[in-house]
UniProtKB/TrEMBL annotation:
This is Uncharacterized protein. One of its GO terms (molecular function) is O-acetyltransferase activity. It is a single-pass membrane protein. Keywords: Membrane, Signal-anchor, Transmembrane, Transmembrane helix. GO terms for cellular component: Golgi apparatus; membrane. Belongs to the PC-esterase family. TBL subfamily. InterPro entries: TBL, TBL_C, TBL_N. It is found in: Membrane. Residues 141-194 form the Trichome birefringence-like N-terminal domain. Its main location: membrane. The chain crosses the membrane at residues 12-32. It comes from Microthlaspi erraticum.
Amino acid sequence: MERQWSFSVKSTRALALIITTISSAIVFLTFFSNSLIRSNSSLYPTTDSNFQIDLSPIASISDSSLVSSRASQILVSTRFNPPENTSGSAKIPGFEQKARGGESFVKEDQVIIANLTSIKVIELPSNNGDEEKKKKKKGIEECDVTKGKWVHDDEYPLYTNASCPFIDEGFGCQTNGRLDLNYTKFRWEPRDCDAPRFNATRMLEMIRGKRLVFVGDSINRNQWESMLCMLFQAVKDPKKVYETHNRRITKEKGNYSFRFADYKCTVEFYVTHFLVREGRAKIGKKRRETLRIDAMDRTSSRWKGADILVFNTAHWWSHYKTKSGINYYQEGNEIHPKLDVSTAFKKAMQTWSSWVDKNVDPKKTRVFFRSAAPSHFSGGQWNSGGHCREAKKPLNQTFKLSDSAGKNTIVEEVLKQMKTPVTPLNVSGLSQYRIDAHPSIYGVKPENRRSQAVQDCSHWCLPGVPDTWNHLLYLHLLHKR
Ligand SMILES: *[C@@H]1O[C@H](CO)[C@@H](O)[C@H](O)[C@H]1NC(C)=O
Ligand SMILES: *[C@@H]1O[C@H](CO)[C@@H](O)[C@H](O)[C@H]1NC(C)=O
Ligand SMILES: *[C@@H]1O[C@H](CO)[C@@H](O)[C@H](O)[C@H]1NC(C)=O
Ligand SMILES: *[C@@H]1O[C@H](CO)[C@@H](O)[C@H](O)[C@H]1NC(C)=O
Ligand SMILES: *[C@@H]1O[C@H](CO)[C@@H](O)[C@H](O)[C@H]1NC(C)=O
Ligand SMILES: *[C@@H]1O[C@H](CO)[C@@H](O)[C@H](O)[C@H]1NC(C)=O
Ligand SMILES: *[C@@H]1O[C@H](CO)[C@@H](O)[C@H](O)[C@H]1NC(C)=O
Ligand SMILES: *[C@@H]1O[C@H](CO)[C@@H](O)[C@H](O)[C@H]1NC(C)=O
């Protein structure tokens, strides 16, 4: 795989300067507002020692009226093959390092000029610079990243079915035959701040020597697989990523721990639909399934000691899946003859929060709780012919969050009363636009597809929306340590 790294330039102001300077036969690197830096986790140089700059047309400047389309074919690219025309393969480690760091290297209104011996950042003459600075967006730490919009981004997806071996059948829409791939090309853009792009290397460095643990239902498996895929793009030797017990990801098995050997970290997933313990109890003469809303899931001993914990639970708290609450919820030896879902959910969340307060050391561990991800069934529910197949693009507006919102409110209240700080990962609103991004019929291989009527409008195709949830997780880790 050729790894290449490029920047595109969109300002006409810059062009005049660029052209002038090119004629003096010097090498240029141009950066603009951080958001325009076209860099991507999977697109970084493969060698650390040598940095060569080559001039070949790669970026086109679209919104330029001053420059002819030919002239606008200006390139500023860095590549690691010896370029023909630049006798100077510039070795500028300091620059490389800063440039790779990406985010806040060069400001708006600045241009970098580099030759073999020196690098200079210069201010661009600008008449509206002051105005632009006033509008400058907030730092990520003081901005509500849930407010924003989905924008088309040609550098998305961050990985493909071919570059990630961890996508299981249920989320492998492309492998299962989905042909329209526009849904993979959207990036969430917060309205009030510039969010740095996801940088897999940086994420791996942040979790070096640590355990990143996802605990929850299959939607958290969705997010966990996405995280594996995103991180995998920064790994040079695929053999150095492996499941510690050689387990293959399937829907059935629930405990996985993938080790990224070069970073001595693990990215783990424990399935537990309710966070609290599913079990059995004798009711009358029969043993029946119950849910212990006063006790944690049996795998909880395994989550202890994690450095980052990402919890979720939501979808299973429905009347259907909880036997309508009749003889289902259990506390101690008592089985509630009938209990409504909200009350049971609240009790379970309190059980969970006590466990966290008791077992998690906030100095060591960061805890996240991901909000409910919306489903998008039309014309029925998941078990009654609901569908979402027709959707090829995101909704342009969203409606009041349904069922899941009630649970979000309960979670919010429980979090407020906790001793341990827990960061809510609020994905509900932004995911609600993405009716286009569910597997629908492509959650199963064509040969296993029994009926077009069964559609999955709850989980998410990978690559896809869970990549954004992980991007938010990354932003939190990056800025609120
Ligand atoms: C090298 O430069 C010459 C003259 O500037 C140009 O004609 C030629 O196309 C360039 N070659 C490459 C590979 O860019
Ligand atoms: C990604 O992060 C690594 C490690 O912090 C850094 O060296 C690299 O330059 C970054 N890449 C980009 C494209 O910002
Ligand atoms: C590189 O740029 C510096 C400052 O702009 C200049 O003094 C120097 O002569 C240049 N070196 C070469 C080899 O062009
Ligand atoms: C990726 O999806 C395409 C269909 O779009 C398929 O031909 C290819 O085999 C898939 N690759 C993998 C590795 O599953
Ligand atoms: C996919 O996106 C491209 C480019 O934005 C657009 O031309 C095309 O119509 C879109 N396809 C669908 C099915 O929306
Ligand atoms: C997951 O771990 C729990 C706790 O150690 C264990 O009881 C359970 O059998 C494991 N499940 C699987 C599928 O390995
Ligand atoms: C959203 O899209 C629908 C149909 O695609 C259109 O009728 C409606 O006016 C749009 N709403 C907004 C707010 O753009
Ligand atoms: C989550 O984000 C949505 C959309 O911005 C917002 O409406 C909702 O109130 C947020 N929920 C919480 C708990 O912050």
